[in-house]
Amino acid sequence: MTVIDLGELRDGVPPGPAPRPPRAVGRPFRLLVVLLVALLTLATAAPPRGPVEWTLPGGLGSAVFVSGDVVYVVRPDRGGAGGRELVAYRGGRERWRSPLPGAGTAVSVWGQDRRAIVAGRGGDDTDWQTVTYDAATGAYVWRRPGIAFAVGRVLLMHIVRRLT
Fold first, then answer.
1. What is the pLDDT of residues 84-95, one digit of tens each?
2. Cβ distance 143 to 129 under 8 Å?
3. Rg for the chain (alpha carbons), in Å?
């Protein structure tokens, strides 16, 4: 047989007040530390940055291409001779400018393997050509007939011939 002792039962004597739990020593200090950490966390959190924007000179007849962190603008040449020029910008500042051969239209401009590649129509706007510049200095590297396509790190050239 199992006996469970439940304590003494006293008749007529009201139970005394429950013993007070021990006072938490340092509770205000801990609360102050938590509030201070929360305040410092919120104060050092940077607000989300908005989009970066700047105005690039271009004018009518300009085309803008973005490749990585560089913006390329193909625009009419300032000399007024009917030519075009390629201008590279990074962070809103002009890095370099180079003349493009002919007066045709640029279809695409992109950066690949330290080169800026421009594909588009040639001078009489009938033949396709690809021109390559050094991406750091804007120095002319090579020019080939046809249009270039980037496939990964490979550059494919497609020669377009007009049937007459």
1. 888 999 888 899
2. yes
3. 37
Of 79, 101, 104, 75, nearest to 89 by C-alpha is: 75
Q: pLDDT tens digits, residue range 2-43?
A: 888 777 766 766 667 767 777 666 778 888 999 999 988 888
What is the C-alpha to C-alpha distance for residues 146 and 130, in angstroms, rounded to an integer?
A: 6
State whether residue 14 is helix, strand or coil. coil
CB atoms within 10 A of CB 88: 23
Whole-angstrom distance, CA of residue 149 vs CA of residue 96: 24
pTM score? 0.62
CB burial string 46-71: b at 16+ within 10 A, e below: eeeeeeeeeeeeeeeeebebebeebb
* Pairing status of strand 70-76 against strand 154-158: unpaired
* CA atoms of 120 and 105, how far apart (whole Å): 6
For the record, the structure tokens of 21 come out as: 């739990």
